[in-house]
Amino acid sequence: MDLILWRHAEALEAREVEDDLDRALTARGERQAHRMAAWLGRQLPSSTKVLASPARRTQQTAAALERKFKTVPALAPDQGVEALLHAVRWPDSREPVLVVGHQPTLGLAAAYLLSGQAHPWSVRKGAVWWLRGRERDGALQVVLHAVIAPELL
């Protein structure tokens, strides 16, 4: 199974809005989202399921991909790694899954899947971590397929 973790692009600071879920992308964040969406559009199989947090900034980031996506409350900022892995059906999903979500959950999930421990790894705003789960000799292996930040595109 391919699991692609995409952190929302740069958004307004929390102090600039009343409700954290209402934080919108900045102009820079919109550029980041569109650059990464263009790259993802060339890389993702057409069968990829796209799931996004209900937060406005993740909705805007996902919309830049110009693909149908599903809003999943289990991906909201106050949810955790277990909720994310359950929502994507890790490692049993038959199709690749792209999650548009938040820190620290994305970094914790990447760390957990790659090292077995939920360490507080940092995922840059607008960046993608592409993980691939595969079975080898009867055991699940997780391979880091790609990590890319929008500034590199």
The class by helix and strand makeup works out as alpha/beta
| CATH architecture assignment | 3-Layer(aba) Sandwich
The profile of the biggest β sheet is: 6 strands, mixed
Average pLDDT figure: 96
**Helicity, in percent?**
25-40%
For CATH, the homologous superfamily is named as: Phosphoglycerate mutase-like
The end-to-end span amounts to 25 Å
The CATH topology annotation reads as Rossmann fold
**What is the strand arrangement across the widest sheet?**
3-2-4-1-5-6
What is the CATH class designation?
A: Alpha Beta
Whole-angstrom Rg: 15 Å
Shape: globular
Give the topology string: H per helix, E per strand: EHEHEHEHEE
As residue ranges, the low-confidence spans are none
Q: DSSP strand (E) fraction? A: 15-25%
What are the defining features of this structure?
single chain, 153 residues, alpha/beta, Rossmann fold, 6-stranded mixed beta sheet, 29% helix, globular
3D architecture notes:
The protein is α/β, with parallel strands linked by helices. It has a single domain (2-152), classed as Rossmann fold, CATH 3.40.50. The chain is built from 4 helices and 6 strands; from the N terminus they run E-H-E-H-E-H-E-H-E-E. The chain has helices spanning 27-43, 56-63, 81-88, 105-115; strands at residues 2-7, 49-52, 70-71, 97-101, 128-136, 139-148. A 6-stranded mixed sheet has the order 3-2-4-1-5-6. Helix 3 crosses helix 4 (105-115). The longest helix is centred in the first third of the chain and has 17 residues, at 27-43. It starts with a strand and ends in a 5-residue tail after the last strand. The model has no long low-confidence stretch (mean pLDDT 96).
